[in-house]
Amino acid sequence: MQAGCPCCSFRLEQQDLFLPPSIKEEEEAADQFLSEPPSPQEAYERLKEHTSLLLDTHCHAHVGQTVDAKYTSKHCIPHLTCALHPNDWQASLEYCQDSQHRKPALGVHPWQFMHLPSDWLERLRQLLLEHPHCMVGEVGLCSEARVVRHHSKGKQEGLRLQRQVFRQQLQLATELQRHVSMHCVQCEKDLIQILKDQESLPPAISIHSFGGTAHQVQQLLQAAGTKTKLYFGISHYVNLSTGKSRQRHVKTIQTIPSDRLLAESDVSSPSDVALGTAAAVGYLAWAL
Per-residue pLDDT for 77 more than 80? Predict the structure, then answer.
């Protein structure tokens, strides 16, 4: 850890955060089965009764920090706040510098790859070197991004440029051995191919608010192999849906290995972090 860099002091020593519950805990949970996922408030109240350690693995809390100026770290749980664009990087770092409960991630979101400054990649490298425990994110692929669908040279050219920016950030994260938080919407096939093509990858990659199929979970894990630890983040805010879509997503969650599941809030305000993360945990518990 670098001296004078509080944002890099975020640590958790416990190694088994995502192990399955004991048989006794499973039996108790079965007695309290809910036909619907609990609401965010219900999940939060239930979790308060236990000594559970909540950890939000993806949000953008720094975006709303001015709105929640009086919100102090003692009310918050540990969380990763992901920047979206070079104009956003410093805000993420400054938000994290005064609290060991916060960890920054810097990157270019797949909706924000157009009109980047010419030196964006070198600036990103320099900031990552200055903050050795900073992650890379939110990066990724998204065929539904407006800048892709309405690109002046057509969608295929938009997708090509988006993939190029993603690959550059993935290579940088691999070089510097940083964990990656990524966005992937309707691009699972592309990601599978990229994971297969790369000779080496970052130590860990988390796919944020994963909405793919159970079959794609297996394909992605196989493509990642031993090159990286691939995680799947689930958020109440993005993933909770109804009808056939919900049934499919429950099957997806049940396919993911228990030690590769992450809970995330995906909120944009510090005061929403705890409730959003509890809601994700409640949804995961209900689905499993």
Answer: yes
Write a three-state SS string for 37-52: CCCHHHHHHHHHCCCC
Query: Could you give phi then psi for residue 180, rounded to 5 degrees?
Result: -125, 135
Under 8 Å between Cβ of 136 and 107: yes
Rounded Cα distance between 271 and 249, Å, is 28
DSSP state for residue 199 in the 8-state scheme? S
67-77: burial string, b at 16+ Cβ within 10 Å, e else: ebeebeeeebe
Judge whether 205 and 220 are in contact, CB under 8 Å: no
Q: Are 206 and 232 in contact (CB under 8 A)?
A: yes
3-class DSSP state of 232: strand
Residue 29 predicted with pLDDT over 70: no
Confidence (pTM): 0.86
From residue 80, how far is each of 42, 109, 168, 259 by CA, in Å?
23, 15, 22, 19
| Cα(126)–Cα(117) distance, integer angstroms | 15
CA distances from 41 to 56, 172, 265, 277, 278 (A): 16, 39, 13, 11, 8
- Pairwise CA distance, residues 123 & 89, whole Å: 10
Quick one: average pLDDT of 76-84? 92
Residue 95's nearest CA partner among 110, 82, 85 is 82
What confidence score (pLDDT) does residue 239 get?
86
- Among residues 246, 252, 261, 251, the alpha carbon closest in space to that of 20 is found at 261
* DSSP of 150-171: T-TT-HHHHHHHHHHHHHHHHH
Let me know: does 83 contact 138? Beta carbons within 8 Å: yes
